[in-house]
Amino acid sequence: MPLKLTKRSFAVLLASISLLSHAEQAQQPSADDNKHNKPSQAAKQQATEDKQTAAPAQLINEATKPKAAPAQAAPQPSAAEVDSQMAGKATSQAKPETDSQAATKVTDEAKLGTGSKAATKATGEAKPEVEQLSVQRLCTDIGKKLGSVSIAECEKQALVASGYFTPKGYPLAMRHYGPLPNRTPQGRIILMGGIHGDEYASVSVLFKWMNKLNRYHSGLFNWQVIPLANPDGLLQRKSKRQNANGVDLNRNFPTPDWDEKALQYWQQRTFKNVRRYPGPKAASEVETKWLLKVIEEFQPDAIISVHAPHKLIDFDGPQNPPQQLGKLQLRRLGTYPGSLGNYGGSVLDVPILTVELPFAGIMPSNAEISKMWTDLVGWLIKEIPKQKEKRLAKAAIEEPPSGGTE
Length: 406
Ligand SMILES: [Zn+2]
Prior knowledge:
Blueprint: H1 7-22, H2 31-37, H3 41-53, H4 69-73, H5 79-92, H6 99-111, H7 116-125, H8 135-145, H9 151-155, E1 160-165, E2 171-177, E3 188-193, H10 200-216, E4 222-226, H11 231-234, H12 258-268, H13 286-298, E5 302-307, E6 312-316, E7 324-325, E8 328-329, H14 340-348, E9 352-356, H15 366-398
Parallel strand pairs: 3-4, 3-5, 5-9
Antiparallel strand pairs: 1-2, 2-4, 6-9, 7-8
This protein binds zinc ion.
Zinc ion binds next to loops.
């Protein structure tokens, strides 16, 4: 790759030459030195673009990785090459896993029908000309995009592809932290981030919380973790809220009022704000279909969805909401046709906790990330057993004697 000689590296070169002339034994500046001295043009350019994308001034840098230029400037092997190399690894990526974790993964795949059935289905849904990318490629692109998550950090989460692919070919992926021996989990929790692709911190915080689960998962809960629900929204030059089809996925859930109200609300209340487009029909998007399938199969007792930047927690469901998570306090946002909160409350009868981080582009401090996590788990410990009891009692009452359906 061509080395650009910048002012700074030129000065270093001059200094080195002058040193050499003074001390014959002096060594040449190493290639590494050059690398450090060379400001990355591509990184700078990307930084500028990302700043323009992020609206207010605070949205500095979650998405602006001061990456070394070479990685981006270097001619890359074709995606096909990378993928054929990775294809094998992606499924059997058993990196730092214990046997029980690996076993859990297998269970996951079986549960979600990831095998040939799901693959066939996904093929039917994705356009045939779009190449299906690997989890490794997903992690590479996440690592390049997010300031707080490295490629290695994403890879170590051992995300499992679901067999569903986005319109751009990214695998919709998740990680299961299942039951451990000798302990019955208190409940089943879905934890997700990045349903809106420009809320960078909501994805990064998920990775930080996964790091905690990697170290401390004790089997207290059975977790299904989806760090990035909308890869197409995040992983493009200018990240955006919607998916590749321009649909706000958090307005695309099949709530009972969708047909009557979703498009009307969008037209009359948001004045056709493109960022709030609910889609041509309920659950029209593959990401929504996938999330619905995960919810249906996993049967969660609670769903936690992380967003930004409204700096609050919102809650749908009859249970007691947490009063605060870290510095975030409970404040109701209201519901919308097609939102996950609305769907959880009206259709699933499952509490949905919406966590709105203070900034889309700035990460909370490590201390705050930890505090939110302990508050979250504390709330789950208190509320989920009650929630489960309630649901069981309700199911017992509502069970029709004939087993008929509505
Ligand atoms: Zn959001």
